[in-house]
């Protein structure tokens, strides 16, 4: 074995120095690996694919997705002229035209030039309901940590002497025009072990940040503590919360200086809208002599529930095939998207009776999501797309008629493509669904790319991807999406059974899909590649070290790989609930069975692998990718490596970087799986 050989990784890890993110030696190692990868994978086809990808990413024909704030629809937009982006707005009347008239509020490219900083847009918190002020978050190079600066929407200028926070993973909310609820890096002891705020303070205009009043505090072992203010007229509330771990949270209302616990299960997700409390269960719950299964969505009168006298009503109950995917409020309706064997359905519920009406006239054979909903009105935007069907944006009212108002262009010829759904059988007999986007007239197996994630209850659903289409499908490749356990495709139990000691199920499911593809003659081992990022990058590391005989190539992006030290690096402590605690011998017993960095063998044949990451990723430490590459090389395995100096956890911070990285990946796959 190569890598960590006993529990004291600091003493035994020969590549620990690669965890020095910006250390001179570490960055020299990065450049030494980047240069040959780019030189080797470069060439005419690479340049053509990079240009194709950039055309998809930059085209003005994309749908500009919006959210309503008062009388205006807001959008953030990147293109070839504005690679860092424009924050802009328009009216509905103009938006419905073919070429809306956009009012640019902030030009991030211009701001970056003026400030001499590589700003990446990280969002805006605009005060409700008058939209006069905003808190603008800007990240250097795409990291999660950002600076926050107050912006006057009336003058279009940053407020001199206004609210401003230094770079941190801050949590901020407007309490009123002169007061913020702030969680940030206040100094020693103010952050959790995961690197997020541990304190919520009330910061008044003109007051030094150091003098802000603490209104709520959590433990260093919490993941994050946050505060927010609901400014809905007649339903004003201040809420504070502490995430005990990634999946458990305590939420309180701060009322007249008193903390009132909203006594729902800590692992349930809650939503408070006007007088309603929604409770989404992750595990079974017994309440007032009634049993409610995991995956249910329940509703209660908020004030009555706080008083302990409220009954809960069932909004949605899952079954073996159907689960809750996501929902959004308008003022008087609840819009709900469910998945039935990973196919979406949309319904509108009326609060109180909780009767549901299906949304009519949705495009057939597409996946539909809620693009935006106005919590102060009745407006909704729905987006429908499929693997071979570009997005269509529908607009209307919740419970009323919808009309198609925008359609994205086709970026590749899909006439020869067909989408099928199959089920593989995992090692324990579980049926695992997967989609195949293949070529209708292909005779025999062909080069195939398999994607998967399998973690944190994230559901992977069908959707249009112009870059994948142009760089892979249009060039003869087949694409497969595996809906493995660990995700949320069948609700919370699809995830919870694959947590901690059940983690092996994720890999077994993915391997079963790989075998099924070969058994059906869709591909062969030599022609099968797989790709995953972040938690999906961990999955690729496990495929490499545990199932190398199933693949012809692997792409492993911004990955977790050293599971002995993941909890010590950046935000890693927040994921202990998902994976287990490596410092607990009982947990390490099952983590050590799959941790890729600890399971590299010099005696097995591994398929070629491309590992990519970002220096500026302050969520998943780039040391994972660096050390894995070094250990693989030491064991004599073929590995290519590329690290973007910018990009954050997304691996790229603007469209040119995304296009470059995409071309690099698909060039590697074409060469390896197509043999050319």
TrEMBL record:
Coiled-coil stretches: none
Domain Peptidase S9A N-terminal: 9-394
UniProt KW keywords: Hydrolase, Protease, Serine protease
Domain Peptidase S9 prolyl oligopeptidase catalytic positions: 472-674
One of the record's GO molecular function terms: oligopeptidase activity
GO biological process, alphabetically ordered: proteolysis
Protein EC: 3.4.21.26
Entry-linked Gene3D superfamilies: alpha/beta hydrolase, Prolyl oligopeptidase, N-terminal domain
InterPro entries tied to this protein: AB_hydrolase_fold, Pept_S9A_N, Peptidase_S9_cat, Peptidase_S9A, Prolyl_oligopep/macrocyclase
KW Iron-sulfur (keyword) present: no
One cellular component (GO) term of this entry: cytosol
Pfam families: Peptidase_S9, Peptidase_S9_N
Stated name of the protein: Prolyl oligopeptidase
């Amino acid at each position: 074995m190569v890598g960590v050989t006993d529990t004291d990784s600091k003493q035994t890890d020969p590549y620990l120095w690669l965890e020095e993110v910006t250390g001179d030696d570490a960055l020299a190692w990065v450049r030494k690996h980047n240069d040959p990868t780019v030189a080797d994978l470069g060439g005419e086809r690479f340049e053509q694919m990079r240009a194709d990808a950039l055309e998809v990413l930059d085209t003005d024909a994309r749908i500009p997705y919006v959210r309503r704030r008062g009388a205006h629809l807001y959008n953030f937009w990147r293109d070839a002229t504005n690679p860092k982006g424009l924050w802009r707005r328009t009216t509905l009347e103009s938006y419905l035209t073919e070429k809306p008239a956009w009012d640019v509020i902030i030009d991030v490219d211009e701001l970056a030039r003026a400030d001499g900083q590589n700003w990446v847009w990280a969002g805006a918190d605009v005060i409700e309901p008058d939209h006069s002020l905003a808190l603008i978050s800007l990240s250097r190079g795409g990291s999660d940590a950002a600076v926050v600066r107050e912006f006057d929407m009336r003058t279009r200028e940053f407020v001199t002497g206004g609210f401003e926070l230094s770079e941190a993973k801050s949590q901020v909310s407007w309490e009123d025009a002169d007061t913020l609820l702030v969680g940030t890096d206040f100094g020693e002891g103010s952050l959790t072990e995961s690197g997020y705020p541990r304190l919520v303070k009330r910061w008044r205009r003109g007051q030094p940040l150091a003098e802000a009043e603490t209104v709520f505090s959590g433990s260093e072992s919490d993941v994050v503590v946050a505060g927010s203010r609901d400014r809905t007229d007649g339903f004003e509330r201040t809420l504070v919360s502490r995430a005990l771990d990634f999946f458990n949270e305590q939420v309180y209302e701060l009322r007249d200086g008193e903390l009132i616990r909203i006594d729902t299960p800590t692992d349930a997700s809650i939503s408070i809208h006007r007088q309603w409390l929604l409770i989404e269960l992750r595990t079974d719950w017994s309440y007032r002599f009634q049993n409610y299964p995991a995956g249910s969505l329940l509703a209660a009168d908020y004030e009555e529930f706080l008083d302990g006298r409220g009954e809960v009503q069932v909004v949605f109950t899952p079954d073996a095939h159907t689960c809750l995917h996501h929902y959004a409020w308008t003022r008087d309706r609840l819009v709900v998207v469910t998945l039935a064997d990973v196919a979406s359905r949309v319904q509108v519920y009326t609060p109180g009776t909780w009767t549901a009406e299906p949304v009519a006239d949705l495009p057939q054979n597409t996946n539909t999501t809620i693009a935006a909903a106005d919590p102060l009105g009745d407006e909704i935007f729905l987006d429908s797309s499929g693997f071979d069907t570009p997005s269509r944006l529908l607009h209307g009212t919740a419970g009323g008629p919808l009309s198609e108002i925008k359609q994205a262009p086709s970026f590749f010829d899909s006439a020869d493509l067909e989408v099928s759904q199959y089920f593989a059988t995992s090692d324990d007999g579980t049926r695992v669904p997967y989609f195949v986007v293949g070529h209708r007239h292909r005779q025999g197996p062909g080069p195939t790319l398999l994607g998967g994630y399998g973690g944190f209850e994230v559901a992977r659903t069908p959707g249009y991807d112009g870059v994948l289409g142009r760089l892979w499908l249009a060039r003869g490749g087949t694409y497969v999406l595996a809906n493995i356990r660990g995700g949320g495709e069948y609700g919370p139990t699809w995830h919870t059974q694959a947590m901690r000691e059940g983690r092996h199920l994720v890999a077994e499911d993915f391997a079963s899909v790989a075998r099924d593809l070969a058994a059906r003659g869709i591909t062969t081992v030599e022609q099968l590649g797989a790709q995953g990022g972040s938690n999906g990058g961990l999955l690729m590391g496990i495929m490499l070290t545990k199932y190398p005989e199933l693949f012809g190539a692997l792409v492993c992006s911004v990955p977790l790989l050293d599971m002995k030290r993941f909890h010590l690096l950046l935000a890693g402590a927040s994921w202990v609930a998902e994976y287990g605690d490596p410092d607990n011998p009982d947990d390490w017993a099952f983590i050590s069975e799959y941790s890729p960095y600890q399971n590299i063998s010099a005696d097995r044949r591994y398929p070629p692998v491309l590992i990519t990451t970002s220096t500026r990723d302050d969520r998943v430490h780039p040391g994972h990718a660096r050390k894995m590459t070094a250990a693989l090389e030491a064991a004599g395995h073929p590995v290519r490596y590329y690290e973007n100096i910018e990009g954050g956890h997304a691996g790229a911070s603007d469209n040119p970087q995304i296009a470059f990285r995409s071309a690099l990946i698909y060039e590697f796959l074409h060469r390896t799986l197509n043999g050319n």
